[in-house]
Amino acid sequence: MPRGPAHPSYATMADPYTILGVARGATEKEVKSAYRKLAKELHPDRNSGNPKATERFSEVTMAYDLLSDKDKRAKFDRGEIDIDGNPAMPFGFGGGGAGGFRPGQGGFRSTEGMGGGAEGIDLGDIFEGLFGGRGGQPGGFAGAGARRGPAPKGPSAQYRLQVSFVDAATRASQRITLSDGKTIDLKLPTGLESGAQMRLAGKGEPGPGGNGDALVTIEIGGHPFFRRDGDNIRVDLPISLDEAVHGAKVRVPTVEGPVMLTVAPGSSSGRTLRLKGKGFTAKNGERGDQLVTLEVQLPAPGTDDSAELARRLEGWRDTRDLRGKFGV
């Protein structure tokens, strides 16, 4: 049955800048920001049963893959490759215009003057006679300098990996199971943030040119008492009035286990102490710090401890003008 000419996919025809909604001169930060916004909006987990959103998510990811790679982006801007990363066809090959040639099975087919369902004319034999054979190049012409682009790799496989706060801070190895049932251990990169993607070369879906890549999107979980502040980690540490007045050595939690911290005599609530190198690892490989904010906590009213504290402080008054700076 006659077949009409195949039409390129939307992702092949579209401009990656248009897909992400950024200008051609967009900075790396602007490209990343646009991708994160669209990825959150279109992620399959949020759009179950919506194939159009899934398709759009794939297009957005493909566009970001190209524009986030400086070499690929430069080649695309120069017209050397298309959005799929394949070499651009010279002399209009592969275009959807009214005439010209397009790749066919074993050679090139003329598309000029064909009806909607007409089969293209295989010009391979004609070119073979003119140029003395194909020289062992499938679909190519010896001596003519024409080469067919590399066969496309399979599509990328998308994975989402939930990483605990502590594992993200310590860059603990993560084990994931791929779609083929195989498991691999991932080493988390420096500068890790929620929404970051890790590319696993050759771990995607199979294709004519080999397997595509796997893209693993990282989501960092929260924590009951740790908070992230850039590359630093913050924690509020309760201490007793006795520890604040007289000073003490207290145990404080860190992402690598508890350590001893010295509280100086006369420490007030809100004072922040620093534990060097106990935070997240920055992109340059340096660790942030853990910032410990002291919270002096008095005994709850009505308890024996509260009654004992009141008895001990009976008759004593702090005569300092603590609020004088406010003018009140």
Give the uncertain stretches in residue-range form: 1-13, 91-146
Number of domains: 3
- Name of the CATH homologous superfamily of the largest domain: DnaJ domain
Helical content, roughly?
10-25%
Beta content:
15-25%
Radius of gyration over all CA atoms, rounded:
32 Å
Structural class: alpha+beta
* CATH class annotation of the largest domain: Mainly Alpha
What is the average per-residue confidence, as pLDDT, rounded to a whole number?
80
Number of helices: 9
Number of E strands = 14
CATH topology of the largest domain: Helix Hairpins
What topology, given as strand order, has the largest sheet?
9-10-14-13
Anisotropy-based shape: elongated
Characterize the biggest β-sheet: 4 strands, mixed
The termini sit apart by 93 Å
Order of helices and strands: HHHHHEEEHEHEEEEEEHEEEEH
CATH architectural category of the largest domain? Orthogonal Bundle
What would you say this structure looks like, in words?
With 328 residues, the chain is of the alpha+beta class. Strands 9-10-14-13 form a 4-stranded mixed beta sheet. The chain has 9 helices and 14 strands. It has helices at residues 10-13, 16-20, 28-42, 51-67, 70-77, 124-131, 165-170, 241-246, 304-313, and strands at 101-104, 107-110, 121-122, 157-163, 174-177, 183-186, 197-200, 214-220, 227-229, 232-240, 248-252, 259-263, 272-275, 290-297. The longest helix has 17 residues, at 51-67. The protein folds into 3 domains: 10-131, DnaJ domain (Helix Hairpins), CATH 1.10.287.110; 157-220, Urease metallochaperone UreE, N-terminal domain (HSP40/DNAj peptide-binding domain); 227-316, HSP40/DNAj peptide-binding domain, CATH 2.60.260. A hairpin with a 5-residue loop joins strand 5 and strand 6 (183-186).
